[in-house]
């Protein structure tokens, strides 16, 4: 079993999925379970996930992610998790408003982090997708117009050798200080 730091080091966005390898339902469920267990402000859990793994639905959803020629790789993803913002509880809403700190997006980001690290733990490749046609996704999946789709996670197995790329990140010293700004 990998450590969490090891998973963080080895996870990378996959844009080359193997179209011939479906994602096992148990693995998809494990990823969603990790997302479900994520922490949230006032334990509000302001999220709702739609897992899409039916072969006939995959190209329809992928098409919603490919506007203006972006995200073409999603046509080979073998599962998606559509992340919808759910209702916040009263305390999270009040706390966020009093502190001018909208917690929902933070909560959802944490939950998706759980999801993609769990995917890496299952040997699955993933790519978070933030560029999509929200209206078309809502129509396709029957999501009420009033709800917001925040992210879509594409999942599958990496095609061929998924060579680990160098991490393009700010240096540790640039972003971390101890005991002062
Ligand atoms: C909120 C969010 C939205 C993203 N949207 C897209 C996207 O629409 N298309 C894409 O190819 N990658 C997308 N990414 C992936 C990022 O480009 C990627 O995480 C970043 O470049 C770091 O690379 P790595 O994930 O391989 O470590 C998104 C990532 C996040 C967190």
From TrEMBL:
> Which keywords does the record carry?
Oxidoreductase
| Gene3D superfamilies xref list | NADH Oxidase (3.40.109.10)
Please name the source species.
Answer: Yanshouia hominis
Q: Does the keyword section mention Oxidoreductase?
A: yes
* Protein name as it appears in the record: Nitroreductase family protein
What's one Pfam family the UniProt record gives for this protein? Nitroreductase
> InterPro entries from the xrefs?
Nitroreductase, Nitroreductase-like
Q: Which family does it belong to?
A: Belongs to the nitroreductase family.
